[in-house]
């Protein structure tokens, strides 16, 4: 067992518990570092050119074993980490419309059957709305900032793994030929929830433009009794800011998507150094966005690198291969003080997609 597990004698003798222990130990005695496609675990500095897995290379027996310890603990609960998707939920103005059209019931002639279904309206962007994950190919970068007036030089874009625009998206109507959603393996690993609302902002929701720094991450690990465990390779890190208090359905206030707190650039680098497979917040961007920034009436928060208003996206997706999880529903997990849990995150395998809707779950015990 892991030294962080706390069991009574009665729990240890429980047959279900013993089965979980045996399963975990079998997993942990398997060769470690076997990734989702049989690749060895490597740091990103050693990742081969053209790599499309990113930090998902860290997934395997070690992460599955850490997950398994949570599943049969007394008092274990399943937590939904997604918001319900609807026509009235908050949507991103950067990602286009999202509208479900519900069709009439269809009765099949000469049968006793009828069926119902729905469709998305034209130009809807399901992969970038609601609770969702970004593919590594969602973001590119350039050596110099575009001035906004000269012809766009998208053909000069560079991506994670040293891939180029020609490799990834050679024509405007092309799917992502590399780094699309179909490359993301099932994410089954431990989730570490860090409660910034409680430990950074005194129990109040963080404000738009505020940042969770690397120092904050370490302080939260200490405050939640996780300093010794730390953040392990292959973990998913979830940060609860309280911004989701502004998530309304129906979205009458139009506040949630207009601005938000987020991670600082140094926090992104901190998580990259620890080789987490994904990072998610209860915010729409992961990056901090100041009030008025999206409308062009304000600059990005202090500390944002020049020319990179979405520096966290840049670092995660193009530099170190960490997936971003956005619009998570973390309130119940935080209220129950579930600091570590088993996370199961399954994006849709859409060929060439830049993002995917998600229904992530966490399985853990309140107060642990």
List keywords for this structure.
disordered N terminus; 19% helix; 368 residues; alpha/beta; Glucose Oxidase, domain 1; two-stranded antiparallel sheet
The 3D shape can be described as globular
Give the SSE string.
Answer: HHHEEEEEEHEHEHEEHEHEHEEE
Task: Tell me the distance between the termini.
Answer: 16 Å
Quaternary state reads single chain
Q: What's the CATH H-level superfamily name of the domain at 77-90 and 130-137 and 172-364?
A: Putative cyclase
Average the pLDDT over all residues and give the rounded result: 88
The structure class reads alpha/beta
Helix tally equals 9
Tell me what portion of residues adopts beta-strand conformation.
Answer: 15-25%
The main β sheet shows up as: 9 strands, mixed
Could you give the order of strands across the largest sheet? Answer: 1-15-13-7-9-11-12-6-14
**Helix share bin:** 10-25%
Total E-strand runs: 15
CATH architecture of the domain at 77-90 and 130-137 and 172-364: 3-Layer(bba) Sandwich
Describe the structure.
By secondary structure, the protein is an alpha/beta fold. Among the domains are: 77-90 and 130-137 and 172-364, Glucose Oxidase, domain 1 (3-Layer(bba) Sandwich), CATH 3.50.30.50; 97-124, no CATH class. It has 9 helices and 15 strands. Strands 1-15-13-7-9-11-12-6-14 form a 9-stranded mixed beta sheet. The protein has a two-stranded antiparallel sheet with strand order 2-5. Strand 11, helix 8 and strand 12 form a beta-alpha-beta unit. Helix 2 runs antiparallel to helix 3, helix 6 (214-223) packs across helix 7 (265-273) and helix 7 runs parallel beside helix 8 (311-320). The model is unreliable at 1-45 (pLDDT under 50).
């Amino acid at each position: 067992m892991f030294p962080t597990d706390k069991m009574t004698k009665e729990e240890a003798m429980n047959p279900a518990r013993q089965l979980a222990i045996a399963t975990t130990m079998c997993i942990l005695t398997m060769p470690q570092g076997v990734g989702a496609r049989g690749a060895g675990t490597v740091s990103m500095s050693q990742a081969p050119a053209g790599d499309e897995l990113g930090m998902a290379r860290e997934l395997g027996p070690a992460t599955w074993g850490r997950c398994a310890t949570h599943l049969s603990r007394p008092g274990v609960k399943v937590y939904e980490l997604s918001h319900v998707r609807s026509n009235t939920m908050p949507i991103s103005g950067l990602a286009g419309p999202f509208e479900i059209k519900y069709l009439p019931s269809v009765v099949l002639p000469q049968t006793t059957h009828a069926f119902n279904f729905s469709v998305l309206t034209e130009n809807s962007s399901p992969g970038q709305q609601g609770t969702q994950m970004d593919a590594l190919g969602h973001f590119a970068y350039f050596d110099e900032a575009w001035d906004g007036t000269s012809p766009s030089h998208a053909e000069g874009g560079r991506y994670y793994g040293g891939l180029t625009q020609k490799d990834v998206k050679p024509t405007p109507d092309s799917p992502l030929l590399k780094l699309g959603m179909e490359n993301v393996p099932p994410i089954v690993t431990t989730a570490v929830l860090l409660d910034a609302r409680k430990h950074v902002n005194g129990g109040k929701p963080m404000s738009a433009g505020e940042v969770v720094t690397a120092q904050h991450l370490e302080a939260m690990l200490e405050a939640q009794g996780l300093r010794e465990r730390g953040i392990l390779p292959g973990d998913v890190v979830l940060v609860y800011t309280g911004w989701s208090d502004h998530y309304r359905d129906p979205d009458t206030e139009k506040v949630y998507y207009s601005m938000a707190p987020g991670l600082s650039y140094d926090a992104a680098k901190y998580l990259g150094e620890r080789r987490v497979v994904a990072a998610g917040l209860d915010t729409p961007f992961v990056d901090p966005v100041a009030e008025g920034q999206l409308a062009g009436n304000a600059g990005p928060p202090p500390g944002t690198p020049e020319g990179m208003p979405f520096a966290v996206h840049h670092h995660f997706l193009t530099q170190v291969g960490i997936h971003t999880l956005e619009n998570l529903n973390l309130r119940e997990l935080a209220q129950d003080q579930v600091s570590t849990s088993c996370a199961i995150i399954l994006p849709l395998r859409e060929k060439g997609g830049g993002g995917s809707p998600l229904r992530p779950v966490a399985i853990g015990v309140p107060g642990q």
